[in-house]
Structures are given as structure tokens and as C-alpha cells.
Write a structure and sequence with these properties.
It contains five helices and no strands. It is globular and about 45 Å long. By secondary structure, the chain is an all-alpha fold.
């Protein structure tokens, strides 16, 4: 049975092979994954499982690195590295700092 994430062999049109600049947040997600993997806090299999079990609607709505960060978040919560409450507080702090004048 083919999963919603498995598009191998399907005719989905041409692939855009042009290189693009990565946004700062995308670079940070990539770096975060490398650091967490090096510390043994996430594995490639966990990342993949998290992405492949997002659900078809979420998978289609999110971009590549958005899927990564959703999966990383889930793995860290599942491992008890961070709680959803703590994550919410930290996200609120970041949001407040972003609103402050520089």
C-alpha cells in the first residue's frame, strides 16, 4: 500500500532542479537536526517516521523544512526533552522579542 508521502514513480510533472537560497530559519532547522542527532536526541528513523505520520492534509500543507521541524518537535516531546507547555512558553517569548523595537 502506497502512503500519501510516497510519490516515487508517480507522474507529478517536471521537477524544478534550480538551486535556491535557503531562508535563515531553514538553515537553522537543518543545523538543529545535525546537533540533535549528534547528541543522540533524534535519529534519522524518528525524523522520517514523524514526517510520514503527519497525515495527508498536514503533509500536503507543510513545506519541506516545516515537515522537518514538526517531526523534530514531536520527537523531542516524545522523548521528554521538552514539554508542550515549555515549548509554548518559549515560542511566546520568541514572539514577544520579535515584536520589540530594535
Amino acid at each position: 500500500m502506497r502512503g500519501y508521502h510516497d510519490v516515487g514513480g508517480l507522474s507529478l510533472g517536471p521537477i524544478d532542479k534550480d538551486q535556491h537560497d535557503y531562508a535563515l530559519w531553514e538553515k537553522r532547522v537543518d543545523a538543529m537536526l545535525v546537533l540533535l542527532a549528534n547528541k543522540g536526541l533524534i535519529t534519522t528513523d524518528e525524523l522520517r517516521l514523524g514526517i510520514e505520520t503527519l497525515g495527508a492534509d498536514v503533509y500536503e500543507r507543510l513545506g519541506y523544512y516545516e515537515r522537518w521541524i514538526a517531526s523534530i518537535t514531536r520527537a523531542l516531546v516524545d522523548r521528554g526533552v521538552i514539554t508542550t507547555d515549555e515549548l509554548g512558553r518559549r515560542m511566546a517569548d520568541v514572539g514577544r522579542r520579535a515584536q520589540e523595537p530594535s
